[in-house]
Amino acid sequence: MNQINETIDLDSNFILKSRTDETIEDIRNIPNGYKIRHKNCNIVFDKIIGEGSYGKVYLVYADNKKLALKLTNDGDECRLIQTYLTPYEIGLFYSKNNNSNPPFIKYLGSGSLFYNEKFYHYYLMPYYVQSLSEFLKHSKDSIENIFFTIALRIMNALGYLCSKNITHGDIKPSYILLKIENNLDSCVLSDYGTSKFQPSFKNEKSVGTYMFMSLDAHL
Predict the structure, then answer these.
(1) Mind listing the pLDDT tens digit for each residue in 188-200?
(2) Is the pLDDT of residue 53 over 70?
(3) Other C-beta atoms within 10 Å of 9: how many?
(4) Please, is 72 exposed, middle or buried when counting C-beta atoms within 10 Å of its C-beta (0-12, 13-18, 19+)?
(5) Annotated binding-site positions
(6) Binding residue numbers for ATP
(7) Domain stops at, among 64, 99, 126
């Protein structure tokens, strides 16, 4: 059953109606063709294009324009964002409030929906057609040329995050996305938001993806 839902925009201090009594469970797949109403446009779900600690990312169509939608039913994430990131920090990644245009994914809006007796929050983001890891599988260019092409943009993104006291912590090809297929000049940095901390990490010498860590992490 399709549904029209109340929506919340990031420029309204990012206040979401989080439920404290909901249990954390795997998000059920939203079927292809499912529709919701976001502000003055219809959003139609297509397919899952990614998964993470807090939810799933869908390819959606907003009035026939491709977007990415991150869906989460974890109420704790909303409380973490409001408590630790604050509306100011959220504003750093909201496209209307960010005039410096650093090359990373920006939020376009947010909202909530109720599906299959479950309450969800969602975030809208631009859709990127390709990850760097996918590009590398088919590229015949040298790694050196690829690195020097993307290095400046990624370092600009990291420099902006660091200037705002935000650390990425897990740079790897799957988190570098291309807006234009096979065009490295269109690359942006992703996956810099809220992450889960496991108590067991306290006993680990390093946390992240070893293949893409600096040499000192392997000593």
Answers:
(1) 988 755 555 555 5
(2) no
(3) 17
(4) buried
(5) 70
(6) 70
(7) 126
